[in-house]
Design brief:
Elements (H helix, E strand, L loop, with lengths): L6 E5 L4 H12 L3 E8 L7 H12 L3 E6 L37 H16 L3 E3 L15 H14 L1 H5 L5 E3 L7 H10 L23 H13 L10
Parallel strand pairs: 1-2, 1-4, 2-3, 4-5
Helix pairs in contact: 1-2, 1-6, 6-7
Length: 231
């Protein structure tokens, strides 16, 4: 049973990782409040997935916040820049990719922090991983630790309260395969999720970095990916 005094804000994109994190928070008996963003992303179909996941998992409330990061551009997800596609034998480069959205997790966590304060919550969950990820700087443990420190300096509960803000990253040390195995154990329906950066209607492209990471994860876990791909 969920403890009504144990509230958590969970960042929910509708993708594989964030859906798994929501399941982890539920398994840990948190009363979950899901937060998604319509930020001008070209793959806004992910919000349909976020709604499906939130409904399926029975969150207390699901908020979709409207912000427009297209004002700044600088990313293939928010600007007129092609999403990189890779052949099966190709590997993405080691540099930060053009699909990185400048300061996105900083912005998202700040909204989550504001909602947590209103809810009287001190727990925030985010699905970042430092193992199988696209090289984004705001997915690293150092970033999360620095943000958590800042959060406890910038909030009423951090300064006056008897509790500390905690940013939970249950996937931070897990591979995609391990994340999928955890999600299956917790009952996540991955058929309701989408990870693609450049989907066509309800089908994932299968060639962008997000699709490739997802497909490799399912293959390594020995589980069939239940969603539809163009290739």
């Amino acid at each position: 049973m969920t403890n009504s005094n144990k509230k958590a804000v969970v960042l929910l994109s509708g993708g594989l990782d964030s859906s798994t994190v929501l399941a982890v928070a539920k398994q840990q008996s948190y009363q979950t409040y899901a937060l998604s963003f319509r930020y001008g992303q070209r793959h806004s179909i992910e919000l349909d997935a976020a709604r499906r996941v939130a409904d399926c998992m029975g969150v207390e409330k699901h908020v979709i916040a409207d912000i427009d990061l297209r004002l700044f551009g600088g990313s293939a997800l928010t600007d007129e820049i092609d999403v990189p596609k890779y052949k099966s034998a190709e590997q993405p480069g080691t540099e930060i990719p053009i699909t990185y959205v400048p300061a996105r997790n900083t912005v998202f966590l700040s909204y989550a922090l504001a909602w947590a304060e209103v809810l009287g919550a001190v727990d925030i969950f985010i699905g970042v991983s430092a193992v199988d990820f696209s090289g984004y700087p705001d997915c690293r443990p150092e970033f999360i630790a620095a943000y958590e420190k800042m959060a406890n300096l910038a909030t009423r509960v951090g300064v006056e309260g008897d509790r500390q803000i905690k940013i939970h990253t249950p996937l931070i040390d897990l591979s995609k395969a391990q994340t999928i195995e955890l999600g299956i154990e917790l009952g996540v329906d991955y058929g309701k999720t989408i990870s693609c950066y450049d989907p066509v209607q309800d089908a994932s492209c299968g060639k962008c970095d997000a699709c490739r990471l997802r497909l490799r994860g399912f293959e390594a876990a020995g589980i069939a990916d239940p969603i539809k791909y163009l290739v």
